[in-house]
Structures are given as structure tokens and as C-alpha cells.
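User: I'm putting together a small comparison set for a docking exercise, and I want a reference complex before I start. The sequence is below, and the ligand is inosinic acid. Could you produce the 3D structure with the ligand included, as C-alpha cells?
Assistant: Of course. I'll restate your input first, then give the C-alpha cells for the complex.
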Amino acid sequence: MVIKSVAIIGTQWGDEGKGKIVDFITKKYNITHVVRYSGGNNAGHTIIVGDKKIVCHLLPSGIINPGTICIIGNGVVIDPEVLIKEIQKIEMLNIKITSDKLKISENAHIIMPYHKQIELKSEESKGRNKIGTTGRGIGPTYADKINRIGIRIGDLINKEIFSNKLKKNLEFYNKLLISIYNGDPINYEKVLEEYINYAEIIRPFVENVNHYFFKLLNSNSDYIIIFEGAQGTLLDIDYGTYPYVTSSNSTLGGIFTGSGFGNIQFNKIIGIAKAYSTRVGNGPFPTELKDDIGKYLQNKGKEFGSTTGRPRRCGWLDIPILKYSVNINNINSIVLTKLDVLSGIKKLKICTKYELDGKEFDYFINNQTFLDNCRPVLEEIGGWEEDITNIKEFEKLPDNCKKYIRKIEEMTKVPVDIISTGPDRNQTIIRNEIL
Ligand code: IMP
């Protein structure tokens, strides 16, 4: 029995195009399992096949590949209503989601209505300093997990446990909503009824994921498992630009605590890097462009959130950030996405280092004082005019485009193995096989 493992990690602030790449690799390499291990429906992984566009918020991006088993690990937070709607949407494409196809950890925490309410109120109260969250209740759900008052999928499917936990939590949250946030209380009976209905739909998919993996390890078959990251390294609760981050570990370490699987020797740790930078929500962004080029990238790259529709802030590629992600995640393969968006920009720039108080730093410093005051040092690189969306071989790319890719390799010391030149599965150049 051989088990191969591949990690897919966002190297920037999310939205790097992980969904397309997970779907592409799943199909190309006959991936047996795709596992989500962090985040929740703050993510929006877009897959385009032919004329079909599918956005997965919770379901792993391998979901449309027949024969691939999808697992939602304990590190994910689940909004049951969103999950059920997503299952129904996929089933409308004639893809049957059975309990053999989808397995959900009984230890994943669930997002409750009070989490969404509290997040809304808390963001409102921060005014200009708000995080700019996706408003899905992600942070408060993880806060409850850490505070040991969270409710898990395994609790949800036991009416007695669920109703007791709900009652207790609502006693606390209703006081908070009324007295601190001047809001309306949440009705216990209504939530109970709603969630008990969800429980019955979700029940068949609930699994002891750890034991499932144990059985896999002790079987005679071969497996290839993808661990699908959500968000990106710079949004990680520990390694990201805190406090403007999400509330989970979106980096490699999250796999060990959030998937239910510990026996992992990664064959590839793939960093997904967009050819330029984007960020949704507030927080530091050293290479941000507030000019026409920023607007050009936003429009051409369709940089509007797949979860919230918010416009994404856009900027030049930031090499110190890529190097930081490579280090944090031990990345040994880069997939460069949305390279086609850069076609038509005469003079491209890449941030190779930062400058602060006359000193230069060729590495990322994750410190608010530094990030608030540093200036990106930009190196100019020639652009290219050609449309590259239908090019299938690296050698056929325009010379400056190849230079851009080689510059990334030279500076990060990691090969760019796959290049994505458009949203479709077919618009992908493989330079080196990853498995
Ligand atoms: P939260 O995850 O909803 O708490 O939002 C915290 C921060 O992470 C905000 O800046 C969000 O815009 C950002 N964020 C969360 N998920 C994603 C994502 O999938 N892509 C891009 N940004 C995200």
C-alpha cells in the first residue's frame, strides 16, 4: 500500500486560485481523497469546467471528480445551512453526494446564528478599524471552540446534547446581544427546530475521520490525498498580518491539527501564488496599487470576492511575501496562477525587498510597526502584449513572460511547476509533473 500526500497552500491573502488547481490536479492524477482542514464558508473556491462555474465554499474542490472522496476535517467550521445548500447545488449537476463520497468529521464545529450576529455587531462597533470579515460567523465560532463552549457536528446529531448546549449558550449570548450590542435576542425554540432539521440531513455524512484514515493506512490499496488549504498564509491567525487575519491556521501546520490524519510524508507542498497580489478586507498591503494599474488588474482579473462580491485590492507581486510563505510552509513547488491577467501591461514591477528608515530588508517582517511604515522596493521588468490564454507549452510563452517566471524561481528558489493562464482546466501549462 502506498499513500501519497499533496498539500495545497495559498501563499498570499487567499483567492490565489486554489479551487481550480485542486480540481485540475484531482482529475489529472486520479486523486482518491481531497481533505479540507481549516476555515469555513468564508472561502470560495471556484471551479470552471466547460460552461459550468461552480463555487465551493465548504465542500472540497475534488467534489465534482467521480471517484474522489471528499473529507471535511475537524479544523473546519461548518454552517449547516450553507453546507446543505451546497450539496443540493452540486446534486443539481447530476453528481450524487452519498455518504461514500462525502465524510464530515464529527469534531468539526458548527456556526450558529449567534456567531453571525455577534460578528456583525462587533465589526460595526470597530468603525474604521474593522477587520472587514466575510460576515459568516467564522471568528466567533473559532472563539467558542477555544473558549470550550463550541458545538460540534457530533453534538448536533444528538438532540439532547445539542439542545442543552444551545440553551446554555443562548443564555449567555442573548445577554450579550441585548445589553452590550443593543440587539434582539435569538429564539431558542426556533433555532432548535431549524438545526434539528439540518442534523437529519447531515447525519449520514458524519464520520470518525481519524478512524477512517487509520483504516485507509491499514488497507492494501494505494491512495493519493490532497490537503486543500483555504485562505492564505498571510491570513493565518499566527503567521498572517494580525489582527487582519482569519481565525484559523491556513498554513501547513493546520493540516496536522485540522484534518484528522497525522501520518503524512508530503510528496509535494504546493504553494499557489497569483502572478500579482490581492487582498479583501482591511490590513497592511505593501505593494497595493491605488492607480489605474490597480483598477486594470481588478477588472481584468475579475477581482471581486467569490464569497462576498467585495472588490479585491490589487498590487504588484511581493517576493518577500512569497519567500516567507515558502519558509513557513516548506513549499517545494509553486503553481503560478492568473498570469494571463498581466498581458498588456507594458512595464511590470515586482517587489524584491522593502525599505524602512534608509535600511533595506529582503525578507518579510510580520510586525505592524514595520508594515505600517515600510516602502516596497520595486524592480521593473518588461511586460508582454500577447494573449497567453491558449498557450500550452512553457517555451511558447513570450520571452518577458518566461523572464517573469524565472525571476520568481530565482528569488524564491522553488520551481514554478504549473502555470495557470485562464480559469478553465485546459488553460494550464505543466512544466514539471508534480507526482
Ligand atoms: P473572516 O475569515 O470572515 O473572519 O475574515 C477575516 C479576513 O480574512 C478578512 O479580511 C476577509 O476578507 C479575509 N478572508 C477570509 N476568507 C477569505 C478568502 O477565502 N479569501 C480572501 N480573503 C478571505
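The CA atoms of residues 172 and 336 lie 47 Å apart. The mean pLDDT is 96.
User: Thanks, that's exactly what I needed.
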